[in-house]
Amino acid sequence: MSNLFAPLLEPLRLGSKTALNRVVFAAHPTNFAQRNQFEARHAAYYAARAAGGVGVIILEGSVVHPSDWPYEYAIFGYDERVVAGYRLMSEALRPHGTLVLAQLNHSGMQGTSHYSQAALWGPSPVPEVNSREVPKEMEHEDIEAVIEGFAKAAGYAMAGGLHGVELNAGPDSLLRQFMSPLTNLRQDEYGGPQEHRLRFAREVLRAVRRAIGSEALLGLRISGDEHAPWAGLKPDDAAEIARLLTADHQIDYVSVTSGSIYTLHLTRAGLFMPLGYALHLAAGVKAAVAVPVFAQGSIVDPKQASAILVEGQADAVKMTRALIADPQLLRKVRTGQADTVRQCILCNQDCVVSLLQNPRLSCAVNPAAGHEAHAEFAPLTAAAVTRRVLVVGGGPAGMEAARVAARRGHTVTLFEQRKRLGGAINLAAAEPGRKRLALSTEWLEAQIRRLGVTIKLGTEATIETISAEAPDAVIVAAGGVPGHMSHVTFDASVPVLHERAILGGAPLPPTGKAVVLDEIGDHDGMAVAEWLVGKGWQVEIVTADMFCGQRLTATQELTAWNQRAWEKGVVFHPQQEAQAVSEGALVMLDRFSREERRIEGLSLVVEVTYDMPNETLYWALKEAGYGKHGMPALYRAGDCVAPRRLGQAVLEGQRAGRAV
Q1: pLDDT of residue 652
Q2: φ and ψ of 480, to 5 deg
Q3: Which structural domain range is residue 304 located in?
Q4: How many other C-beta atoms lie within 10 A of the C-beta of residue 513?
Q5: For the chain, which ranges sit under pLDDT 50?
Q6: Same domain, 275 and 336
Q7: What's 395's domain CATH number?
Q8: Which of 4, 220, 469, 529 lies 20 to 30 Å from 333, alpha-carbon distance?
């Protein structure tokens, strides 16, 4: 083990207990629950991280009172059935020596009434930002009921064999809502001056400590900055609150995050924020308290995590997304294999599950995340018969297929028609602020080179070149090809380029006015607009969607994108249907009024439309008999099946590599 990582692996004293190291797997929604309780899927998920050596695991948050049902698959911590679920977790994790805590929460006004069919509860009737629901101002009986709920839920956690509990007073919690003048407008003993706004938290802390006893761990998660300077908690406020609440010696550690009702995108930020963006908040709290402090906020690099501890900014680091991407991160660091860690790319594509579709948690670079108990992701074993496998395409699907096939003992050759591996990820990583995406394919390339895969760059795959390799199996992972807006007519007055061509280095005319025709509403259109602005272009975006960048809500990047676009002068034209480019102008129709509008003086038009599968080779091979008895087996994976996201490409590549 390098001394560089020694600070991460030092034990940490927490109350009466000692964590194996300074790395924490924090609470986060998974949508794994069945009947709103922990189940075997949770146990397998957490056990994989415990087996990798993480010091502290804080389980998915449990709600403490029936007045709170914040999402469909929330854990009902107030239901006595939760004891069996906690016991399932503790028994699965105990052999690994990890400290395991329940997180207890009430979402208050930030919940939803969709499931409970009852009014939300909050300190004051402040509308919830997303749903616009106005909560009921909690009466004293309601406050007493929730305090009792916290205590009862804490008792259930201890009955389930856990080491303690963490109280959530972070961005999405009733406890924070009472602490903050942003959401607490009360004039009674629970509102007004800070002393009164902390009363609810103090009463909850005392009740929970009585319920769990003096030996169990009690942690507190707080928001170090609500990023609402007109009324919210600021860093100095958070440090003072932490000082006051820890002065009673009830709390064993403080975990510091950021965000509030208006800024949840700053709680679990994506690529738009730098690594460790909230470290200063943890450092501020650490300077004010005598108990250990946990830092949070895009801490995914082990080197940075170790430096945080050396510099004294925190006593432990929450590396949740990093451990979703690679459960073995700590084992690899400990055994001198840090260079083999599969790094989190902060894309938020598969690990953010608070969406209308209710997806189960997974990971774009690690498709086994959330599926650890499934036979499909059982540890790789040697193939019964080794074969010569040819993979066509050096993008994520192709490289993952090659990696898995090689690990199973097959002799693997990979054809890539370009001069470098990476596929479409290379273009995505060229977008402003998205360089980190390239880590996904860089890791895959390092793996296949280490495994001895023969890589042939600049090689076109044809039936003839494939036949010359005499493969036993062919995996086609040729990616996608740019689509075209057939419903828009274009004359020759303005150059029309696909966003892939621009990011790929196609020559551009002198700078002027560019219009981006965006059919997708994803990162692609927003990124090419930002890229062009950076090159000196005046950019306007046209979309038929209700607003520009509509799909950025799923990865929590919409707010940050809007802020950057406004600062850079990007002009939005939502709810407009592009009709034609003629004589240097775009003609468009309002989606609802059907009023015609024009954007004049264009120098460039950029198409951002759906890719199509590059399936020509696959069908040619199939027509030639591949896949039939006596011929090489034939598979395909990734965008050449149907263009989608990175996670689907990696998953299908793994499936193909296991199938051969």
Answers
A1: 98
A2: -120, 170
A3: 3-340
A4: 17
A5: none
A6: yes
A7: 3.40.50.720
A8: 220
Hey, how many other C-beta atoms are within 10 angstroms of the C-beta on 189?
11
Let me know whether 139 and 267 are in one domain: yes
| Distance of alpha carbon 641 from alpha carbon 612, whole angstroms | 9
Cβ contact 503:530 at 8 Å: no
C-alpha distances (whole Å) from 50 to each of 288, 367, 379, 432 are: 31, 18, 17, 36
**Residue 554: its pLDDT value, please?**
87
Q: Is residue 88 part of a domain?
A: yes
Q: How many CB atoms lie within 10 A of CB 490?
A: 17
Q: What is the pLDDT of residue 2?
A: 63
What CA–CA distance (Å, rounded) separates 200 from 186?
A: 12
Question: Are 129 and 247 in a shared domain?
Answer: yes
Amino acid at residue number 622: K
8 Å CB contact between 314 and 295: yes
DSSP 88-133: HHHHHHGGGT-EEEEEEE--GGGS-STTT-S--EESS-PPPTTT-P
CA 22 to chain centre: 22
Which of 242, 290, 626, 339 has the alpha carbon at shortest distance from 461? Answer: 626
Residue 15 falls in which region: left (phi positive, over 0), alpha (psi -120 to 50) or beta: left
Q: What is the pLDDT of residue 355?
A: 79
**Terminal-residue alpha carbon distance, the chain:** 36
Q: Model's pTM, two decimal places?
A: 0.96
DSSP for 251-285, please give it: -SEEEEE---TT-GGGTS--TTS-TTTTHHHHHHH
CA separation for the pair 23, 341 (Å, rounded): 15
DSSP 25: E
Q: How many domains does the chain have?
A: 3
> Residue 159 is which amino acid?
A
Question: Would residue 350 count as lying in a domain?
Answer: no
Last residue of a domain, one of 340, 361, 392: 340
Do the beta carbons of residue 18 and residue 252 sit within 8 Å?
Answer: no
Q: What is the pLDDT of residue 1?
A: 53
Enter the tokens of residue 158: 């201890």
Would residue 97 be called left, alpha or beta, if left means φ above 0 and alpha means ψ between -120 and 50 degrees?
left
From the number of C-beta atoms within 10 Å of its C-beta (0-12, 13-18, 19+), residue 145 rates as: middle
Which residues, 6+ apart, have CB-to-CB distance to 144 below 8 Å?
none
Instruction: Label residue 392 left, alpha or beta by phi (over 0 means left) and psi (-120 to 50 means alpha).
Output: beta
Residues 246 and 124 reside in one and the same domain: yes
Q: Are residues 75 and 161 in the same domain?
A: yes
CATH number at residue 240: 3.20.20.70
Question: Residue 311, CB half-sphere, CA atoms under 13 Å: how many?
Answer: 13
* CA 325 – CA 340 distance, rounded (Å): 12
Cβ atoms 317, 24 nearer than 8 A? yes
What are the contacts of 147-150 at 24+ separation with CB within 8 A? 147/200, 147/203, 147/204, 147/207, 148/207, 149/64, 149/65, 149/78, 149/106, 150/64, 150/104, 150/106, 150/204, 150/207, 150/208
Decide: 192 and 121 in contact? Cβ < 8 Å: no
